[in-house]
Amino acid sequence: MNNMFYSEINSFIYFEDDNFKTEIAKKISSYNKIVCNSNVPIIVYVDDFGLPKKEVKKFFDNVTLNTICSEYLNFSIAIALLEKLKQDYLFNKLDSKIFLDKINNYFLYDKTITINSLYKLLEELKNTKNFYKEEYHYYLETGNFNGDLKNVKIPYLDLEVFVSKFRKLIGNNSQLCILIDNKNDVSIKSKKCVNSLMYSKESKSFIINVLTLKDNWETFDDLRGYYVMPVCSDYENKFVRKK
Length: 243
Hints:
The protein is of the alpha/beta class. Helices cover 41% and strands 14% of the residues. It has helices at residues 18-31, 62-87, 97-107, 118-142, 159-170, 188-198; strands at residues 11-15, 42-46, 176-181, 206-213, 232-236, 239-242. A 6-stranded mixed sheet has the order 2-3-4-1-5-6, sandwiched between helices. α2 (62-87) packs antiparallel against α4. The model has no long low-confidence stretch (mean pLDDT 90).
């Protein structure tokens, strides 16, 4: 079961039942423990990947909204990775100094402060994710970006860089597989963010499998408006069958 969804290409996997989809995804992620200093594949489950559908009351700028939704997705995946480390009881077993030094160097807005533990890093990632969630609702209500990015220690996250440093932290050279569990209330914009991430030429450290009911993903356009040709499969009788 561990490698059932693991592949080397981004893809959409269709299910007939929503609850069964989530049950299978959680089981696979739970059974797939992180093995340090190995090439054992890593599978991480992400359900809270996107912002909810919401009525737009004011004019909005696409670039601003794209940034809010993209960063929310990036932080969601980074948080899921650290949560998996924590659940597998690896926080206190890893020498995280070099990893945290890289995070401080690449992502901290204020270079006079430092994050000196994985617990603190996880806390700051959650703070920023919540920041973008609040900004999303406020922005679509008012048309204004209200928050000050100086109020969060890590305002932006390059996911490719984060995943690359994460793999070095755990000494695992295998490609990371991210399971995105589609929810009905997630906005089209957030789904376009996933499409952009899946088909980005820069995404080499991870692949994404979107688990969804048929016709529930709603869009195969990316954030630039380009149609991406999806690779699709069906989940049938404990097997993933390519369409």
